[in-house]
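Reopening this one. Same input as before:
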Amino acid sequence: METLANLESFVRSAETGSFSSAARRLALTPAAVSRNVAQLERNLGVRLFQRSTRGLTLSEAGERFLQSVQGGLDSIQGAIADVTVNAGQPAGVLKLNSAPGFGMDYLLPLMPAFLARYPAVTPDWSFDNRPLDLIAGGFDVAFGGGFDLPPGMVARELARMHCITVASPAFLQGKPRPTDPAGLADLASIVMRSPLSGRLRTHVMRNSAGVEMVIGHKPALLVNGPDAICPAALLGLGVGLVSIPHALPHLQSGALVRLLPDWYCDVGPISLYFASQKLLPAKTRAFVDFVTQTFREQQLAHRLSVNSLPSGKTA
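Same output, byte for byte:
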C-alpha cells in the first residue's frame, strides 16, 4: 500500500506543475517531494512524470493515475482536517491581502466585529495593488479580481465593481460635454498604467441599452494605481474613471460631476480567494463565512454598483 505522503506529493506536483510549488503547499522541501514521487514510481513500476528544465508533464500513465486517486485523496484529507483542524476554535495568525483602497474602506471596518467574535485570531494584512502568487506568498485569504486561479484555490464572488467618469466643475467650465465614451478623447484624462506591463489601461463602458464602447483617452496625468484617480480629479487635473463608492460622496457634495450619466464601466468581480474548502483551517473558514455573511447583510454589493447612485446624482 502506498503512503499518503507519496500520493499527496504526486497529486500536488501534478496540480502545480513543479516539485517546488508542491513543496510550498505541503510544507516540505522540493527534494522530499521529488523523493516521494520517485518512490511511488518505483513501487508502481511506471513513470508518472516527464521531467525537463521547464517543469513537469504528466505521462499517459500519470494522467490516468491522477484521475483515479485525486478525488479519493481530497476526501481522505478532508476527513483528517475535519477531525484535527476544524474541531478547534479559530485561532492563530491569519494572513490577508487586498488592494489598499478596497481593503481600508470596506474590510478594515469589519475587523472590530470579527475580532470581538474570534479574539484568538490575529489578522495580518498586506495592502498591495500588485498581482500576487497567493500560494507562494502564504496568504490564507486574498481579495481582488483577475487573479490566475492556481490549483487548490477557489474564488467566491462578493460583488461587481462599477466605475463612472467624473471631473470637477472647474475643469469642465467652458468645455463641451462628450455624448459617448469615445468623445472623452477630447478632454484631458487621468489614466492608470498596468502595474505589470506599464501600458495604459483601456476600459469599455456600456449603457442601459447594452451598447459597449471603448473609453477615449487624452492622458494628462498617469498613475500606477486606482486610489490616486479620484484625488486627481478633485484637483481639476482631468476626467477620471472612479469607482462608485469613491465618487458618490463627491457627487453629493458637488465637488465632482458625472459625465455620460447613462454609461458605466464594469471592471469585474471582487472575489474572495482561499484554499480548497475541504482543507480550510478553522480561522480561515470563520473569516470567509464572516465576510460573505457581512457583505450580504450590509448589502455591500449594492453599494459598489451603479445602482447605488441616487436619482439626481447622475449628471
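So the earlier flakiness isn't reproducible anymore. For the record, Residues 236 and 243 are 17 Å apart (CA to CA).
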